[in-house]
Amino acid sequence: MINYILISLKMKIVVIVVIFFIGTMAAQNSINIPKLGTIQIREIDGMEMVYVPAGSFEMGSSDKQLDDAMEECRKFYHSEKDCQKYIYKEKPKHKVTLDAFWIDKTEVTNAQFCRFLNTNGNQIEEGVYWFEPGAGSRNVLYGYIEKLNEKFIPKEGYENYPVIEVSWYGASAYCKWIGGRLPTESEWEYAARGINNFVYPWGNNFNGRFVNYRDSSFIFDNYGKDTSFNDGYPKWSPVGTYPKGASWCGALDMSGNVHEWVNDWWSENYYAISPIKNPKGPDRGTLKIGRGGSWYDPSWHVRSSYRKGLSLSSARMHWIGFRCVIPIK
After folding, report:
1. Cα(153)–Cα(149) distance, rounded to whole angstroms?
2. Are residues 15 and 57 in the same domain?
């Protein structure tokens, strides 16, 4: 009888210790989980990253949201064909659930990309250079990186501008270099619009003071030009210029300035078959995807759901950059 009581007491003590240990570990883990928008600085390139917690959102656009975008487009283009060219590639709207991750607060800058090139060289993948100066329209050098004495350097005054003339391969290689990868299309959109499914990173109503887009300062032509706003920059602007345009997690420039490469292959129909949990896009394709719109784009192209299929080279695309993510392991 005494032995039975002693055994029972020992078992109870063991159970209490185990429960205490599990509770302590759970409490410790909850303490270690960052809060929405927590910032950490990446040592290798000095980039600030913001924390995006796990969660769900509605990816894509509803029929009403697309109709609203079409109506805005018609005010400027007066052409149904031009307006339909890209806008209706965002259907169907569908639920997506994602694990937590860190995302760069801004696009990668000229100074940061020079550090990468000087460490790794300007390599070729699938016949395409990582960095493609002069790949833009008519072989004009649009970017702000020079090569002097075998060293890549940003032009003076443009160190903090987003790097452009970067192929998808170059963007992907950079993100691997910093220990991450390009965001999936769903991660990018989640960081841009959040659990409230905003049309723009800052909310549901467009505000030309929050974004670099085709406004009255646009210098090329008047086609689709919005003269009701002036963002102060005829082309690119330094990263982080529009803090009021921050997304729910604190990411900047998710709308406008430069398009951003994401990891996925392009497919017009992928949304109809996308898995709910951590979708990664089609297994193969011929185009990748650009997100966010740019200084070259009108207001309906800088919506958080807008997507565009792009060649993996940056040829004729002097308006595309990128940012990276680091998944939570």
Report:
1. 10
2. no
Residue 163: give its domain's CATH number: 3.90.1580.10
Could you tell me if 156 and 63 lie in one domain?
A: yes
Q: By the 8 A CB rule, do 182 and 43 touch?
A: no
pLDDT, tens digit, 9 for 90 and up, residues 284-324? 999 999 999 999 999 989 999 999 999 999 876 778 999 99
pTM above 0.70, yes or no: yes
Cα–Cα–Cα angle for 274, 328, 314, nearest 5°? 60
**Number of domains the chain is built from:** 2
Name which of 244, 268, 254, 135 is nearest 193 in CA terms.
254
Same domain, 180 and 59: yes
Q: Which helix (H) or strand (E) holds 68?
A: helix 63-77
Measured between alpha carbons, how far is 215 from 231 in angstroms, rounded to an integer? 7
Q: pLDDT for 53-62, tens place per residue?
A: 999 999 999 9
3 state DSSP class of 97:
strand
The reply to whether 14 and 99 lie within a common domain is no
**19: enclosing H helix or E strand:** helix 2-32
Domain shared by 264 and 247, yes or no: yes
- 2 and 91 share one domain: no
Query: Are 258 and 320 contacting, i.e. CB atoms less than 8 angstroms apart?
Result: yes
Q: How many helices (H) and strands (E) does the chain have?
A: 6, 14
3-class state of residue 93 by DSSP: coil
User: 40 is written with which tokens?
Assistant: 């950490």
Question: What are the angstrom distances between the C-alpha of 47 and each of 106, 107, 210?
Answer: 8, 9, 22
> Are residues 250 and 138 part of one domain?
yes
Selection from 109, 306, 298 nearest residue 189 by Cα: 306
Q: What is the pLDDT of residues 146-197, one digit of tens each?
A: 999 999 999 999 999 999 999 999 999 999 999 999 999 999 999 999 999 9
Range of the domain at 1: 1-32
